[in-house]
Amino acid sequence: MTLKIGVIGAGHLGKIHLRLAKASKHYTLVGFYDSNKEYGEEIAKEFGYNYYKDLESLIEACDVIDIVTPTLSHFEVAKKAIQAGKHIFIEKPITNTLDEALELIKLTEQHNVKGQVGHVERFNPAFQAVVNKIENPMFIEAHRLAEFNPRGTDVPVVLDLMIHDIDAILSVVKSEVVQVNASGVSVISDTPDIANARIEFKNGCVANLTASRISLKQMRKARFFQRDAYISVDFLEKKSEIVRMKDAPESPDDFAMILQNAEGVKKQIYFENPTVEANNAILDELESFAEAITLNKTPKVSLAQGTEALRVAQMVIDNF
């Protein structure tokens, strides 16, 4: 059984969603809506998708509504879809405000529909290759640097870029956030373009995050430090590495890397390069949502998780 899906918003990311929804075996693409009628008709003519001139008609014709509009309009579009009894996939950040996100959760419960948030890095193959190896990390460092692009500057860099790492970190640290310290600088935009945050968790874990949209080079890396292991994830190059430390054997071979601490305890270092399976992360997140609907499971990135990522992101912004 395929689900009938409609895409709202046909900008850069919306066009990607349209193409993948059409290609997916889990969905039947009904059509799309864009508030810019002239642009919408151009896209329909160029790619052959059905353009709906009003939002309500598209919502009525679908099972699933895929919301890829600017953040400021997420809430209103999602609310209409949910009240019409439709499942929603909504791009990150879930909404512009925490109150809006909490309202959407309440509405999905009332109307018995599912929702998923597009935190695509959860489906990044480099992260997926090691996520089950990340156990009780106590220090995390993440850098997400991008060259300037006018797209996305309607929100602070924290909601545009850093929220990806906030969500990934919240998915592996099983503890509540107790303190946030942050600084942000507006260089080109009216909102901060570069930000740093130190997030402290109740269990003692500390995450140090940096995000910039005015860098000369791109970087998307995270490093997780835990007892006897260091795990690195390169979201951009789609590579990951695990460095483990184990008690050194009595007679290590000549090429073994051995460290000895002040107490004389010897540890041997082992390097692992997990197999990273190539994938299309956006297609995977859309199809995982289809699976959650058909099998009646909790979506991999639920509205509650998207709301928690927004809540922590808002704590960062409030600390500037």
From TrEMBL:
<feature type="domain" description="Gfo/Idh/MocA-like oxidoreductase N-terminal">
    <location>
        <begin position="3"/>
        <end position="119"/>
    </location>
</feature>
<dbReference type="Pfam" id="PF22725">
    <property type="entry name" value="GFO_IDH_MocA_C3"/>
</dbReference>
<dbReference type="InterPro" id="IPR036291">
    <property type="entry name" value="NAD(P)-bd_dom_sf"/>
</dbReference>
<dbReference type="Pfam" id="PF01408">
    <property type="entry name" value="GFO_IDH_MocA"/>
</dbReference>
<dbReference type="GO" id="GO:0000166">
    <property type="term" value="F:nucleotide binding"/>
</dbReference>
<dbReference type="InterPro" id="IPR055170">
    <property type="entry name" value="GFO_IDH_MocA-like_dom"/>
</dbReference>
<dbReference type="InterPro" id="IPR051450">
    <property type="entry name" value="Gfo/Idh/MocA_Oxidoreductases"/>
</dbReference>
<feature type="domain" description="GFO/IDH/MocA-like oxidoreductase">
    <location>
        <begin position="157"/>
        <end position="217"/>
    </location>
</feature>
<protein>
    <recommendedName>
        <fullName>Oxidoreductase</fullName>
    </recommendedName>
</protein>
<dbReference type="InterPro" id="IPR000683">
    <property type="entry name" value="Gfo/Idh/MocA-like_OxRdtase_N"/>
</dbReference>
